[in-house]
Write a structure and sequence with these properties.
about 160 residues, 6-stranded antiparallel β-sheet, alpha+beta
């Protein structure tokens, strides 16, 4: 299960990478979420934007539908779409709760492949870190492998 601690460790790993003298990082990493859990519009390569891995894989397939995902004893369907236009990726993820008949919409706008996540919305509002963690855990419950522990463990070797 992905937690805030997981995101913190990923960010720490990115900071360790950025401190290396090989010059790979010209701009200091900035987290995807502020300390108060609100979306950071000034995020850049912070290590916690692991949704990028999923988005990059989604782009190759265009659309993905995950049906009957079980997460915390509830079932969900996820409908994921990705489009690229004018140097931006536009990602929509519809979360359908089969148990409560609710629908939530997630939207990301990302500049280029390496750019910042310019917009992260959950039901039209700026996404919170808790909503982000829920989304990541739903995708993981659907079978998506973010390969998080390899990233964390390789940094701390």
């Amino acid at each position: 299960m992905i937690t805030i601690d997981t995101l913190n460790k990923l960010h720490e790993a990115r900071l360790i990478e950025a401190a290396k003298p090989d010059g790979r990082y010209s701009t200091p990493p900035k987290r995807m979420f502020n300390e108060d859990g609100t979306f950071n519009h000034d995020n850049w390569n912070g290590g916690d934007a692991i949704i990028r891995k999923f988005i990059n894989d989604l782009d190759d397939k265009n659309d993905i539908i995950y049906e009957c995902i079980t997460h915390e004893n509830k079932t969900y369907d996820l409908i994921c779409t990705s489009r690229y236009y004018d140097y931006h990726y536009y990602i929509n993820i519809t979360i359908i709760s089969n148990d409560s008949d609710t629908v939530n919409q997630v939207f990301f706008r990302i500049y280029k492949v390496r750019g910042c996540i310019e917009m992260a919305r959950y039901d039209g509002q700026n996404m919170t870190v808790d909503q982000y963690i829920l989304l990541l855990n739903l995708l993981q419950s659907a079978g998506y492998n973010f390969k998080l522990f390899e990233k964390i463990n390789n940094t701390y070797k």
